[in-house]
Specification:
This protein is an alpha+beta fold and 143 residues long. It has helices spanning 30-36, 39-53, 94-97, 124-140, and strands at residues 11-16, 19-24, 58-62, 67-71, 74-82, 85-90, 117-120. 17% of the residues are buried.
C-alpha cells in the first residue's frame, strides 16, 4: 500500500482479502460538479459564497461532495450540487424569519431544532430569494 501514498484526495483505496481496489472519486467531487454547472448558476454560487464568507465570523470547509459554512462549530449553510443543480441549505426556519413564503422544508428533516431551509438556486428568482435568506442568516449569526 506504500506505493499509493502519493495519490491525491480524490482517490480512495480499499483492500479486501488481499485485493486492492482504487476508487477515483474525482467525478463526484464538488470541484468536478462546479465545472459542469451552467455559467449563470456558477455565478450565483460564487456570489452567494462571497456573501457568506464576507462575514469574518463564518468559515468555509470543502469536503468531497459538499461545501459547508460554519459559525464557530455550528454548520449554518451548505452547498451541494446534484445532477448539475445547485442546492443551498441554510440554517433558518420559518420561526426565525416570521414568514412562510421563503421557506421550503426538506423532506429528510428529523430534528426540528436542526432545521435547514433548502433553496434550489438555478434561476434568477431563486437566486434573489437565496440572497434575501443569506442576508437574514448573516444578521442572525453576526452577534
Amino acid at each position: 500500500m506504500d506505493n499509493f501514498s502519493n495519490l491525491d484526495d480524490s482517490v480512495y483505496i480499499e483492500e479486501t482479502n488481499g485485493a486492492i481496489i482504487i476508487h477515483n472519486l474525482e467525478n463526484v467531487s464538488i470541484k468536478a460538479q462546479k465545472e459542469k454547472m451552467d455559467k449563470n448558476v456558477f455565478g450565483y454560487y460564487q456570489n452567494i459564497k462571497s456573501m457568506l464568507i464576507s462575514n469574518g465570523k463564518i468559515q468555509n470547509r470543502t469536503y468531497l461532495g459538499k461545501e459547508c459554512f460554519y459559525a464557530k462549530e455550528e454548520m449554518i449553510a451548505k452547498f451541494n450540487i446534484i445532477n448539475g443543480k445547485l442546492h443551498l441549505y441554510l440554517k433558518l426556519s420559518p420561526k426565525d424569519r416570521g414568514a412562510q413564503r421563503l421557506f421550503k422544508r426538506p423532506k429528510h428533516i428529523i430534528d426540528t431544532n436542526n432545521e435547514f431551509t433548502l433553496v434550489m438556486v438555478n434561476s434568477e428568482n431563486e437566486y434573489n430569494r437565496a440572497l434575501e435568506l443569506v442576508s437574514f442568516l448573516l444578521h442572525k449569526y453576526s452577534n
